[in-house]
Amino acid sequence: KDPAKRTFYRRLYKLNHADQPCRHLGVVKLLSKGWGADLSVVMDSLLQAFLRDQPAPRVHAETPWHYAAKKDGSSPVCSRMDLSCYFLNTSSACQISDDDPSSGGTIMAPNTKNYSQGKLISPPSFYAGTEPTQKNSETLQQLWWWIYEYATRPQTWLRHEVYKRVLTVNMQVPCGVMHVRRGDVILERGGWKRQYYDLTEYIRAMNDRNRNGTHAKNILLLTDDENAIKETVNTSGYNWMYIDRPRFKGGEGGYENQIPSNNPKEEVVSLLAAFQLVRRCDLLVHTKSHFADYLYHEMKDGHSGNSSSVERINLDHLVH
Asked: What is the dihedral of CA 232, 234, 237, 241, to 10 degrees?
């Protein structure tokens, strides 16, 4: 439906899958911090390559990606233990082997000073010499999300697993979404430390901004804390919806440990199911988080890309 998006994907496909001479390309290091941080680094690098008219760099995991195996390498989802366990290849373009980090090649680090989900960018040029119809930052941010959608195309088996997981939640609409991140909050230190909030503060924020008086009664709760699930018992008048899966209590899992089930595949299936579920809702309450950006993108996309149909509330901005 979007001619600009169709043009973009045609060029992206040609760049990454058409027959062409081998090129010296960098590789981007796959982090193991959290879904938002891990994917943001990869997508920033893919965007840079695209703007340089280059095929996507190879994504390299120096150690097992924590969503593809346990940190000690056990319970691998696939032998490579990286994004390829779940998603289709971003490129079939030939890359010269001496760019492999195991052969002394150079890791291609994203330009984190200028690139962050396509924001705050001073780009060298636009693709195919086409002039943008919007401001540079807006145009590149859109390209960033299109690349994210391209790079996270699920394999067939994963599509089936996510579909089945979605069906386990009895979704009622209209609905709001609460992203209650707790695990790292207790353990974080320094400038990135997040604020801990009781569930009642999320409810208050949602009710204060509720536009039609109905969808705040149906709440999809996304949380890494089993205690937050238990807190719903102390509320009344709400229909709480959530994915039934293992969760840590508070910070018992340790810092940047998102695998309470000890089964990385199950965690990814639940995560991607959450992305599908939120598309039906139109109100998001969250705190500082890359992951919340992904939720908001899915919600807008579920409403035909119309941001005015989805309201986003950052609890940190209300309290501080």
From this structure: 10
Residue pair 110/48 in contact (Cβ under 8 Å)? The answer is yes
Q: What is the token pair recorded at 68? A: 């593809």
Mean pLDDT computed over 80-96 = 84
Give the tokens for residue 234. 């102390």
DSSP β-bridge partners for residue 284: 177, 312
Tokens at residue 1, please? 């439906």
Q: What is the mean pLDDT of the chain?
A: 80
What is the DSSP code (8-state) at residue 31? P
| Side chain identity at residue 118, one-letter code | G
**CA atoms of 61 and 185, how far apart (whole Å):** 26
**CA-CA distance, 288 to 193, in Å (whole number)?**
9
Please indicate whether residue 316 or residue 286 has the higher confidence score (pLDDT): 286
274 band by pLDDT with thresholds 50, 70 and 90: very high
- Crossing angle of helices 35-51 and 136-151, in 10° steps, is 110
| Secondary structure element (H or E) that encloses residue 311, with its range | strand 311-314
Place of tokens 């994504």: 59
- Separation of alpha carbons 133 and 191, rounded Å: 37
| Between 186 and 46, the higher pLDDT residue | 46
Radius of gyration of the chain (CA): 20
pLDDT of 98 strictly over 60: no
Question: The pTM is what?
Answer: 0.84
d(CA 219, CA 221): 6
Measured CA angle at 91 (ends 87, 94), to 5 deg: 140
Q: How many CB atoms lie within 10 A of CB 110?
A: 20
Q: How far apart are the first and last CA of the chain?
A: 41
